[in-house]
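Minutes, structural biology subgroup

Action item carried over from last meeting: produce the C-alpha cell record for Amidohydrolase (Corallococcus llansteffanensis). EB confirmed the sequence was re-checked against the source entry. Recorded below for completeness.
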Amino acid sequence: MNDVESHVALERELPGEPPPSDLNARARRVLKHLDAVLPDLDALYRDLHEHPELSGQEAHTAAELARRLKAEGYEVTRGIGGHGVVGLLHNGDGPTVLLRGDMDALPIEEKTGLPYASHVTTPDGEPVMHACGHDIHTVCLAGTAALLARSRDAWRGTVMVVGQPAEETLQGARAMLEDGLYARFGTPDVVLGQHTAPLPVGAFMHREGVTMMGSDHLRVRLFGRGAHGALPHLSVDPVVMGASVVLRLQTIVSRELAPLEAAVVTVGIFQAGTRANVIPDEALLELTVRTEDDAVRARVLAAIERIVKAEAEASGAPRPPRVEVLESTPVNRNDPALLRRIRDAHAGWFGSGALVPGMLVTASEDFPRFAQGPEHAVRTAYWFMGITPLKAWNEAPGTTPEEKLSHVPGPHSSTYAPDREGSLRKGCESFTVAALACLHAGTASRDS
Ligand SMILES: [Zn+2]
Ligand SMILES: [Zn+2]
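Output recorded by EB:
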C-alpha cells in the first residue's frame, strides 16, 4: 500500500472487521449448506437457461428469485425499476452489503446443443438466449441469499439482495436507483457483483481500480443532397462523406491518443440509400465508444465531433451534421481497499492459484451506477468468475490465458456454454465468501 492509498484507507474505514483471520472458518459454517441447496439451484438454472427473457421482460426470472428469497425469510419487494427484485435480511448490528445479480438475456440464437438450450423466440420471431451468463448470476444470487439466511449465527449486519433487470441495455441499474432503491431500502455500505468470464471454471479475476471501460453510444446523421446515381455532380454524396468519416475516425485511437491510453471507437451501423442508382440525402452512423477515464472520454468525444463536422464541411454538406450521445455508462471502478479485501478472501478460500492477473475489460456494465449514492460514493467491487468447462479449456490451442481465450466461446456468443455444476458451486462460494468478508462476524462458536 502506498502513502496515498493508506491515507484514503484511514480516511474512510471499510465496514466489517479488519481482514478476518477466521474468515474460512466462518465460510465453512455458511457453505456447509451448499450441497442441500444445490439441487434447487440446478433446477432453477436449467429453467432460466431454457426460458431466457430479454431486457425489461424478466417477469418469470424475477418471480422465481423473489419466491426463493421469501421462502428463506427475506423481506421482498418486486417491481423496482421494472422487474427489479429487492430482498432484505436484517441480522443484527453491522454493515449493509448489497449483492447484485443481473437477470436479462440477449437476442441471440442459442447454438450450444445443450439439453436445456433455449428455443425461445419473441412474438416477432427474435431468438433469445442467456449468452452472457446472467442466469448464473441470478442463480448464484439466490444460492448465496439462501446460504446466508440458513447460517445467521455466522454473521451480523444486513444483506440486501438485488435482482437487476435490463443490464444488457444499460438501463436497469439506473431505473432501480431512480425508483428509490437507496431511498426506500437504505444506502448500502458496499455493493458486490460478479460476472461470468470465459476463463476456466474455478478461476477468478480481480482488478484494482478500473476493471471495465465506460461506454457511450453515439448517433451521427450526415446530411447531403440526393441526386440520380448517374448525375453525381449534382449531389453532395452522403455515402462518400460517411465513408470518409468512418476511415478518419480510426485515427482517433491510433493517432490522437498516446500509445498506452486505452479506448475503442467502433462504427457498428452505417446506413444510407435504398437503390443502386439513387444518391441518398442522408447517411446514418452509430458508434460505440469505450474509454477508461473521463479525460480520455472527453477527448475522444470531442475528436468525433470535430472529425464529423470537418468531413461534412469538406464535402460541402448543405447542413451541418448532427452528433448525439444516446446512452452512456460510467467506467466500472473498483474501490481499491474493498477489492483487495475480496481478492484476499477469495485467495484464502480458493487458494492463490485460482486467481488470474486482472486485465482491463473493454466491455461495459451498468453496475457502476450503484456507486452513485445520494450523499457520497458507495464502495463497489466487481470481479470475474471463470465458467469454461476444464476439458474445453485444456483442449483450446495455446498456452497462455490470452491465447486460449481467443479459442473458447465468450459472452454474447451463441455457443457460450458454462460448466453448470462447477459454475453454480464456485459462484455461490465466491459470492458468499465476499459477503462474509464485508459483514461482521457472528456470535456463534467456531465451526458448529
Ligand atoms: Zn452481456
Ligand atoms: Zn453480462
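Discussion: Residues 1-12 have pLDDT under 50 and may be disordered.
Next step: EB to file the record with the rest of the batch.
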